[in-house]
Design brief:
mainly alpha; two-stranded antiparallel sheet; about 130 residues; about 60% helix
Length: about 130
């Protein structure tokens, strides 16, 4: 199958084996001409990306199917979407679970909750910093 003349930054990221955010940054940093599309996922000439891949030493890797790399923004959004479902869990549900969970499960949950709290505090700080 031949390469299309224009590709979006997400597809370019797959070809370059980098995240979509990194591809968008690279497109801006290298001053590649864009051809419409949203600023977060502009269209670029595939020839420009192939040339860039050659500069970055990725030409051989491009022969294989690109691995999808989720951007940092995508990972955060996915996690927040999943965590939004906590609204479905009541206090009584949590107390019942804690009374029935075995000690190993409780310890694993404690570690997971402490890690989540730290990350969520970072999210709140970032939202405050960037105006929520």
């Amino acid at each position: 199958m031949s390469m299309p003349v224009f590709i979006d930054a997400v597809y370019a990221a797959e070809l370059l084996h980098i995240s979509p955010d990194a591809a968008a940054d690279l497109i801006r940093a290298r001053g590649l001409r864009t051809y419409g599309g949203p600023s977060s996922n502009p269209f670029v000439r595939s020839a420009d990306i192939l040339a860039l891949a050659g500069e970055l030493g990725e030409r051989e890797e491009m022969a294989t199917a690109p691995k999808r790399v989720k951007s940092g923004s995508g990972r955060v959004q996915t996690r927040l979407t999943a965590d939004a479902r906590w609204v479905e869990v009541g206090e009584e549900d949590i107390k019942t679970w804690a009374s029935r969970a075995d000690p190993a499960r409780k310890q694993a949950a404690r570690t997971a909750v402490e890690n989540a709290l730290q990350k969520l505090q970072l999210v709140l700080a970032a939202l405050d910093e960037h105006g929520s």
